[in-house]
């Protein structure tokens, strides 16, 4: 790479998952904060239908509010990732020359949540293309996305998870009564979730067996594989950020707590993203030092158990009885400046532009494939 040119970062956002709008909002924040002296940004949007386009770098157009749901512009010029690892280029998909603003890419920053973004599929594409990218690789992304496999891997590493039942499509279709009985054995209330969901979409809290079928149907509309979990009652909800170091080890951030859900029964989509009154976050969480230490230690252990890279956020339930369990690990956590992950790192002394910078630097030094 010549000294004269800036590093080229392709910021990829939008996408086919139900978290399209959230991803656009994240991109708006990253585009506004990224160091333009150091990086040339190529904004790549993926439409809800999966078309890749050269998007605008205007953060305002992509912001998410209660009154505006941003969306990638499907009218923009289509682009593709070259599958030739010697090129490492983004090419126009239109029948004319590649515009000069495109070209070879030094690092890709996939700001995508959910399926086709956080689940290893797009990571596989970047591996094929020989491109360096921010965040976890194929396996850790796939395991982190699938709550069933995430729990299997965490349990194998002796990390505590909430009791659960998996409801596979064939099980629910052939013998729903067997699934109902397995759920009954967990004890009520339960949380019913799409196995590979995110942003709380498709999740229902169910008080007793009467609500179960509708909740399973709802979750199945997001993912045919469903997880039913015993509810963590009388629990506090804690989160911790993990950031890889250049030496390959990982550090844990300050711990945060979601102290109020506003008018909502749990931390659902509206509570998370629509800035509603009464949703309160506490950074750092008011905890005994030994609890904070345990959370941070479990977070790094979870990151390593899955073989994560770059960043992850690990979420916990902390019972009034002192029990700490991992709810989930997110390999591409919410990443606007007001999201938990950046706020926890800010509390630990790493501000938003620096976080972006560190992640890009890590990705640049990361070997792709087995190299
Ligand atoms: N087992 C549970 N006990 C108590 N609350 C839960 C449980 N599972 C989920 N929740 C609530 O639902 C929210 C979303 O669930 P989560 O599993 O984190 O899904 P997502 O991947 O969509 O964020 C949690 O932040 C929490 O408020
Ligand atoms: Mg969650």
Annotation keywords:
371 residues, alpha+beta, five-stranded antiparallel beta sheet, four-stranded mixed beta sheet, 12 helices, 31% helix, binds adenosine-5'-diphosphate, binds magnesium ion
In a few lines, what is going on in this structure?
The protein has 371 residues and is of the alpha+beta class. It contains 12 helices and 16 strands.
Structural summary, described in words:
The chain is of the alpha+beta class. The strands form 4 sheets. The chain has a 5-stranded antiparallel β-sheet. It has a 4-stranded mixed β-sheet with strand order 3-2-1-7. The protein contains 12 helices and 16 strands. It binds adenosine-5'-diphosphate and magnesium ion. Residues 315, 328 line the site of magnesium ion. The site of adenosine-5'-diphosphate has 18 residues, from strand 9, strand 15 and strand 16.
> Overall mean pLDDT score?
90
Order of helices and strands: EHEEHEEEEHHHEHHEEHEEEHEHEEHH
Q: Biggest sheet: strands, sense, closure?
A: 5 strands, antiparallel
How would you classify the helix and strand content by structural class?
alpha+beta
Radius of gyration: 21 Å
Helix content: 25-40%
Small-molecule binders: adenosine-5'-diphosphate, magnesium ion
Unreliable spans are: none
Strand order in the sheet with the most strands: 14-13-12-15-16
Strand content: 15-25%
The backbone outline, from C-alpha atoms, is: globular
Total strand segments: 16
| Count of helix runs | 12
The CA-CA distance between the termini, in Å, is 19 Å
